[in-house]
Specification:
Blueprint lengths: L4 H15 E7 L5 E6 L2 H4 L2 H20 L6 E5 L4 H13 L5 E5 L12 E2 L9 E9 L3 H12 L3 E10 L4 H6 L5 E6 L5
Parallel strand pairs: 3-4, 3-6, 6-7, 7-8
Antiparallel strand pairs: 1-2, 4-5
């Protein structure tokens, strides 16, 4: 399932250059850390977006070759948004479309009150790849799985750009949904 080394290596260079920084920070999990990886800085960069789209698409294609159907790609806003959009564009260009979706942090406060945007392209029960920028404890990934299921989507796999190796993999494994990451903490520190 590994993506082509040149694209992966270049994405890692960009993540180190644009997204990784040393320094004490408080993470969304509430934990403190001596480094931070803001993947949005890379995923919103033109080259970074192209590489992210390519590698996520390649991961989805590898799953598809194993018989896993994937119709959509998305996750919790804001970290997953540029990842899902990039993968959707590449998938269309390659003739194997995956429609992007966005899971809100709060339900829409008006109209339909929905949790998921992009659902009109994904029928009830659609198999989806849930994407994350960074996994620490797995909390936002677990929320994404719950919200996707509540919105009649079927998460069949999870992919993060970076796994900080701080318990998230184990929390996600307990759900039974297969999880992979493009990079881990060891690639940065």
């Amino acid at each position: 399932m590994s993506p082509q080394p040149p694209a992966r290596a270049r994405l890692l260079e960009l993540l180190k250059q644009l997204s990784w920084q040393r320094g004490r920070v408080v993470l969304s999990s509430g934990k403190t850390s001596d480094f931070y990886i803001d993947c949005k800085q890379t995923a919103l960069n033109a080259e970074g977006s192209a590489l992210v789209g390519e590698l996520v698409f390649e991961h989805a294609q590898a799953l598809r070759q194993q018989g896993v159907r994937i119709d959509g790609v998305g996750g919790i806003t804001l970290g997953a948004d540029p990842i899902a959009a990039a993968a959707a564009v590449v998938s269309f260009q390659r003739g194997a479309p995956m429609h992007a979706f966005i899971i809100r942090k709060e339900p829409k406060g008006h109209g339909t009150g929905q949790w998921v945007e992009g659902g009109k392209s994904l029928p009830d029960g659609a198999p989806v790849l849930v994407v994350e920028d960074v996994v620490t404890t797995g909390g936002s990934t677990l929320k994404a799985l719950e919200r996707a299921r509540q919105s009649a989507l079927t998460p069949v796999a999870i992919l993060s750009l970076v796994d900080r190796n701080e318990g998230g993999r184990e929390a996600i494994a307990a759900t039974g949904v297969p999880y992979a990451s493009l990079f881990t903490r060891a690639d940065f520190v």
